[in-house]
Write a structure and sequence with these properties.
Blueprint lengths: L2 H16 L6 H8 L2 H10 L5 H33 L3 H22 L1 H4 L7 H16 L15 H18 L6 H8 L2 H12 L6 H28 L1 H21 L19 H34 L1
Helix pairs in contact: 1-2, 1-4, 3-4, 3-11, 4-10, 5-12, 5-13, 7-12, 8-9, 8-11, 10-11, 11-12
Length: about 300
């Protein structure tokens, strides 16, 4: 067992997070500890350095193998149970985020310690996510079935995909929430589920969405990499702010359901068992990461000795 398994599992969990409003796949990547590798690989996929490009492709293939399985599972299963068990799932994600924050602060202590002037980025990050969540209320949805959307809707879908994928790679900002703001969350999930059932009426709509995703990746990832390298402290403070803001997004999640909106989570609907399970999963991933890292280092030392 090597770190490759952690990347595949991470891809699976990223897809589950990306599939529901309020949670970011970037948060999962950050929690597990391969966020920089994730951003770097996306950036290096078009690198002129052959070795960097090869390494990026290998990493992304591992990640995407888990992500595809996770997204297919989400489209077929999770979205079906999401509305019926919204408070349990929301409690689970609250556990994910709340238990993850101190772990991230501990791992990035050099970015936080003594640089408290960057605390303004916490406020800005939180305000960004809260604002996006607030304005996602009551948005109308369109269909991605060919013939049921026009040119204007296609253009809007393209740009929605660009903004959504940009958000998905940022810890704290949910790409699904961005899709909710544009009114495309349910149509995209319906389209993925339809394609998995060989309903190709959704094919053109998903192609437009896919091209928007690619455009978003190539237009924003390089900037993210530069920001992480040159402004690490401010970025880390901003990420913590976005994660804090995502707590509001998760609590308000039930009110953003398309077919059967429910009241926002309260203390009465909060499920402590699922919250604790979320915390256990995060701590378990942290332990797994440490164990696999030690095993990988041991194997490398042994190979060098031989």
């Amino acid at each position: 067992m090597t770190l490759s398994i952690l990347v595949i599992v991470g891809g699976f969990l990223m897809a589950l997070a990306d599939s529901v409003p309020g949670v970011s796949g970037g948060t999962v990547a950050f929690i597990i500890g391969f966020y920089d590798d994730f951003i770097g690989s996306l950036n290096n996929i078009v690198s002129r350095d052959k070795e960097k490009r090869k390494k990026a492709i290998i990493f992304l293939v591992k990640l995407m193998s888990g992500w595809i399985v996770g997204m297919a599972s989400a489209a077929l299963v999770i979205t079906a149970v999401f509305e019926e068990n919204i408070y349990e799932i929301s409690s689970l994600f609250l556990g994910f985020v709340i238990f993850a924050i101190p772990l991230i602060v501990a791992e990035e202590k050099n970015a936080f310690k003594g640089k408290y002037y960057n605390v303004i980025w916490v406020l800005l990050g939180a305000a960004l996510v809260v604002g996006l969540t607030y304005f996602s209320k009551g948005t109308a949805s369109s269909s991605l079935v060919w013939g049921e959307f026009g040119f204007a809707s296609g253009v809007l879908l393209f740009f929605a995909a660009m903004f959504a994928i940009s958000a998905m790679v940022l810890p704290g900002i949910s790409g699904s929430t961005i899709l909710l703001v544009f009114g495309f969350y349910q149509p995209v999930m319906d389209a993925i589920r339809g394609i998995l059932h060989f309903d190709f009426a959704y094919f053109v709509g998903l192609c437009i969405f896919g091209f928007g995703v690619l455009a978003g990746i190539f237009s924003t990832v390089k900037g993210l990499k530069i920001v992480l390298e040159k402004f690490r402290s401010a970025t880390m403070y901003g990420i913590i702010g976005m994660m804090l803001g995502s707590l509001y997004a998760i609590v308000m999640g039930p009110s953003n359901l398309k077919d059967n909106p429910k009241p926002a989570m309260t203390f009465d609907t909060f499920n402590v068992v699922f919250f604790i399970i979320g915390g256990i999963v995060i701590l378990g991933l942290q332990v797994l990461k440490v164990v696999l890292a030690k095993r990988e280092a041991k194997m490398e030392t042994k190979n060098e000795a031989n």
